[in-house]
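Project outcomes to date are best conveyed with an example. Our students and postdoctoral researchers have been running inverse folding experiments weekly, and each run begins with a structure described purely in tokens. The record below, which covers 243 residues, was selected by the lab manager from last quarter's runs and is presented without edits.
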């Protein structure tokens, strides 16, 4: 799905992929509008909580319809039984701490999804940075990849990799994303209340093949330019000891 820098061949980062134009512009606009509307109703919350969607059930919401479509762009997407999803709308100069995605109901160990993914719905804000650090490796990361926001860009990466968002320049419009974690088993997560969202539309009959989705540019990142090795080790250690 993407051309990975030669230095990343054979490593976990080689499984990072990103394509553009993953969904039609009108669907991007509808999703973005719903998320911003939710944000206006609940200004103290940047997301709508974590939701669970069983992939063997027909989509009831537009969000679930989008997930079924994105599944065709996920490697071995047919093997997953469900998708954990949420969304986020933040100021462009607001980052997000580096962390491991996990089943939040399990506190004594880190159980990560098979794959994590991000659907960008705006071109505002800083990049998502994904690093070659996992819960089983305490050493500081040596390499990373940055995926920059662009409406319709869809990035996928191994769910066990450390990742976060760097702050961007201050701007008028928010950074809006929909996030989807892909699971082979049902996580013991705390599910959010039913979301008031637009029902799935029978008019959306889109079949975007992988070959028609253009590759997105992935930017290599040197983690040592962001933080010292000791700081990275502390971040990983704090994540793995989180209860």
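After processing, the design step wrote out the following sequence:
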């Amino acid at each position: 799905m993407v051309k990975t820098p030669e230095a990343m061949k054979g490593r976990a980062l080689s499984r990072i992929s990103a394509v553009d134009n993953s969904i039609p512009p009108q669907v991007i606009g509808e999703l973005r509008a719903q998320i911003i509307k939710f944000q206006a109703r609940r200004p103290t919350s940047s997301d709508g909580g974590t939701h669970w969607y069983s992939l063997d059930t027909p989509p009831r919401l537009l969000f679930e319809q989008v997930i079924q479509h994105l599944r065709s762009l996920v490697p071995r997407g047919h093997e997953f039984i469900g998708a954990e999803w949420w969304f986020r709308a933040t100021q462009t100069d607001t980052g997000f701490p580096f962390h491991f995605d996990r089943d939040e109901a399990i506190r004594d160990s880190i159980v990560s999804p098979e794959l994590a993914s991000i659907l960008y719905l705006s071109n505002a804000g800083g990049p998502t940075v994904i690093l070659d650090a996992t819960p089983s490796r305490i050493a500081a990361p040596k390499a990373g990849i940055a995926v920059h926001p662009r409406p319709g860009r869809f990035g996928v990466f191994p769910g066990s990799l450390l990742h976060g968002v760097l702050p961007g320049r201050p701007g008028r419009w928010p950074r809006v994303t929909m996030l989807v974690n892909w699971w082979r088993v049902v996580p013991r997560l705390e599910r959010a209340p039913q979301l008031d969202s637009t029902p799935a539309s029978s008019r959306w009959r889109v079949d975007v093949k992988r070959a028609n989705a253009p590759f997105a540019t992935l930017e290599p990142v040197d983690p040592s330019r962001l933080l010292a090795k000791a700081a990275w080790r502390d971040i990983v250690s704090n994540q793995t000891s989180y209860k």
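The helical segments are 25-41, 62-70, 229-240. Residues 61 and 196 are 9 Å apart (CA to CA). The training component of this project remains on track.
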